[in-house]
Amino acid sequence: MAGQSDCQLSVFSPEEIEFVAEDELVEIVPNLRMDSLNFICGDYGPFYPQIATQVPLWLAVALKKRGKCTIRPPQWMSIENLTQVLEGERDSHAFQPLPFHYVEISRLLFDHARDDIPDIYMVRSLIEDIRDVRFHKVETNLEKFTASSVTCKNMSAMEVNIIRAFAGRALEAFYKHENEQQVPDTDGIQDRQLQIPNDRPKRNLKPR
Amino acid sequence: MASGNGSVSMMDDYETLISTTDVELLKRAWRNEKAAPEILQYETALIQRIKEQIQLAEQNVEIFESNGIGSLTVSLYQMDLDRSQFLLRSYLRIRLQKIEKYLFHILKTDDQLNRLSRQEQVFARRCTDDLGSHLDETVLSRLPDNYQSVLKQSVTSEEDDMVPAPRLDTFVVCKARQYLSGLDFEPEYSTEIAELESDLLTFACYKFIKKPFEKGMIDLV
Amino acid sequence: MYARKGYELVKDFASGEKGQLQHFNEELFNQVVDQCTQHYTELEALIRKMQEESVDVRETRNADHYGALIHHLSLIRNKRCLMAYVYNRAEIIRNLAWNVGLELLELPEEIQEKFSDSEKTYFGKHSAALQSYMADLDIDLNVDMVPPKDPYIKVRVLHDMGEGILLSDKTANLARHSMHFLKRTDAEQYIARGLMEELTG
C-alpha cells in the first residue's frame, strides 16, 4: 500500500489551465456605458463607449459574446512579433519570451473574437508553427533531464503541463538510480523486518 | 528574509500591502495545494475572508436581481462569484481528497494534523474510524492476532510499515518569488540545489524546495 | 507457490479499467484469507516443534526457523495484497461519492452490485462524513467540479425526469429530449449521472 505514486492529484487539467489564463488582462473597447464592476477579483470599469480599458480575459469574452465590446489583441499577437518569435524559436535552442499562457489566450481569442484579430489566418498559423517548434524543443529538451533539478526559461503553461507527468517520472527514476542505496524498500520484506511474530522473544535474521 | 520565523508573516504583510486580491492569494494557495504531494497548512484567515466576500457578493447579486439592475450586470457579477466559488470549492476539495488518501499518515503526527482546519480534523477522524472498521471487518479481523494492525504488517514491525504516505521525492514545477541562495535550502540537499533564480521555471524534487516553499518563497506551478 | 493467490487478487484489481470497480472477488479473497490462516498454523507448528526439541527459538537458525520465516513472510505478503485490494477499492468507492453521488441509491445498479456488504456500509458512512463536513462549512463541494464558464448552460434531457423538478432558480419539466437553459450548478449533477447532456456551440 505504501509508496504508491499518484499524479492524478497534482496535475492541472486543460480546463484548469484555461481558467487560470482567463485572469490575464486584455484591452477591450466597450460599446456601452456601464458603471464600475466591483468584483471579488478586483474593480473594473467604469466603461464608456469607444474608451479602451483593461479587463480579465473571461470578462472580455463574456462582454464580447453579448456583443458589448471589441477585444484588442495583445501586442505579442501581432504578425510582426510572431514572425520574429518563430524565427527565434527556429534559430535557437532557447524558448523565446511569450506569455506563460500564450496557447490558451490565443485559442480563447480565436474562438470568441475572430473578427477582432486582423489577418487571423496568418496569426493562427504562425502561432501553430511556434507551438510545434516549441513542442519539438520540449521533447528534445527532455534528453537533458539528467540533473536533479532542471530550469526551463520561458516555457509556457501548456508545455509545462505536457511534460510534467513524463519528466516528473523520468527525473524520479534518475534520482532513484543515483541514490539506489538510500531508497527504502516499500515492501519492507528485504530490510530489518525479518522477524517472526510469536509470543516469544524477538530474533533477528540477516537480510538475504 | 533569508531565514527566521518572521519571514512568513512579513511575506503575508507584504502581500497585503501591495494589495494582491484575496482571490489572487487563493489561486496561489489552490495551485500550491494541487501541485504539492503532501497536505499544506490550511489558510485559515484567507479562507475566512474569501467566504465573507463570497457571501457579500451573493447578497449583492440578489439585491441587483430584485432591484431590476440590468441582467447583463447581474450575470457578470454572477460569473465573478462563480469563479471565486470554484476556487474555494476546489481548494477545499483537493484537501479533503488528500486527507482521504493519506488518512493514517496525517493522523499519526501533530505536525500533520495541525495543518488541518478544525472541520477537516473532525472529518479526518471520522474517515479513519470508517475506513478502519471497513478494513477490520473485511481483512484484519480474519487474520491471526499478531497480524491485525492496520498500521503495521505484524507485531514484530518496529515502525508503521503499512501506512501510505505522500512521496516527497515527487518532482514539482516551481518558481521562486525572489532569488534564493544555498542558505535558503536544507543543507542536506546542497549538492542537489544550490540556488534558484527568481521567476525561473524549475523542475525540482519537492523535498529539495520544501523548506523555502513552506516559508512562502517559492510557488508551485 | 506461496502468496501466488494474493498476487492474483491484486492482479484482478489492477486488470480492471482504471477507476472502475470490478465485482468484489469474494472467492479469491477468501482463499487468500484461508491461506493466511494456514500459514499461521504451520508457522505455529514449526515453533512448537522447535520448543519441543528444546531448541533456542530465538537464536537457532535451523531448517524449522527458516520454514517458519517463510510462512511469516508469505502471510505478510498475503496481508498486504488483501489490504491493497480493499484499500484501493475503497479509494474508487470514495471517488464515486465525489463524482457520481453521495447516496448509495443514486449510484447506478450495475455499480452497486459490485460492492461487498462492508463496502456498502463504508460508502454510506463516508458519504455521511463528507456531508457533515459540508454542512459544518455550509458549502456544497459536489458541484463546480470543473472550472466555471458562463453561469447558464444549454442542456438536453436524455432521460425523462418528470415534471416540476425543483431547481435553485425555478421549477422545470424535464421531459426526455427537451432543451433547457439551466444554471450550471443545477445541471451538473444530472450531467454527471448521464441524465442530461450539455449543448455547446
UniProtKB/TrEMBL annotation, chain A:
Renumbered residue ranges of the record's region Disordered: 180-208
Major localization class: nucleus
GO term, biological process aspect, one: double-strand break repair via break-induced replication
Membrane listed as a keyword: no
Transmembrane stretches, start-end: none
A Pfam entry, by short name: Sld5
Domain GINS subunit: start-end pairs: 76-168
Keywords: DNA replication, Nucleus
Gene3D superfamilies hit by this protein: 1.20.58.1020, 3.40.5.50
Domain of life, per lineage: Eukaryota
Subcellular location: Nucleus
GO CC annotations on file: GINS complex
Location of the DNA replication complex GINS protein PSF2 N-terminal domain: 13-71
SUBUNIT field: Component of the GINS complex.
Protein family per UniProt: Belongs to the GINS2/PSF2 family.
Protein name: DNA replication complex GINS protein PSF2
Automatic annotation (TrEMBL), chain B:
Cell compartments where the protein resides: Nucleus
Keywords: Coiled coil, DNA replication, Nucleus
GO cellular component terms listed in the entry, alphabetical order: GINS complex
Coiled coil: 40-67
InterPro entries tied to this protein: GINS_A, GINS_bundle-like_dom_sf, GINS_Sld5, SLD5_C, Sld5_GINS_A
Highest taxon of the lineage: Eukaryota
Domain GINS subunit: 72-129
Main location: nucleus
UniProt xrefs under CDD domains: GINS_A_Sld5
Segments forming domain DNA replication complex GINS protein SLD5 C-terminal: 166-221
Gene Ontology biological process terms, A to Z: DNA-templated DNA replication; double-strand break repair via break-induced replication
Pfam families, per database record: Sld5, SLD5_C
Keyword Secreted: no
Family recorded in the similarity comment: Belongs to the GINS4/SLD5 family.
Protein name: DNA replication complex GINS protein SLD5
Organism phylogeny: Eukaryota, Viridiplantae, Streptophyta, Embryophyta, Tracheophyta
TrEMBL record, chain C:
Pfam families listed in its UniProt record: PSF1_C (PF24997), Sld5 (PF05916)
GO biological process, one term: DNA strand elongation involved in mitotic DNA replication
Organism the protein comes from: Erythroxylum novogranatense
UniProt domain GINS subunit: residue ranges: 51-137
Protein's recorded name: GINS subunit domain-containing protein
Protein localization: Nucleus
Gene Ontology cellular component terms for the protein in this record: GINS complex
Leader sequence segment: none
InterPro entries membership: GINS_A (IPR021151), GINS_bundle-like_dom_sf (IPR036224), GINS_Psf1 (IPR005339), PSF1_C (IPR056783)
Keywords: Coiled coil, DNA replication, Nucleus
Coiled coil: 33-63
Stored SUPFAM superfamilies: GINS helical bundle-like
DNA replication complex GINS protein PSF1 C-terminal domain ranges (all copies): 149-200
Recorded family membership: Belongs to the GINS1/PSF1 family.
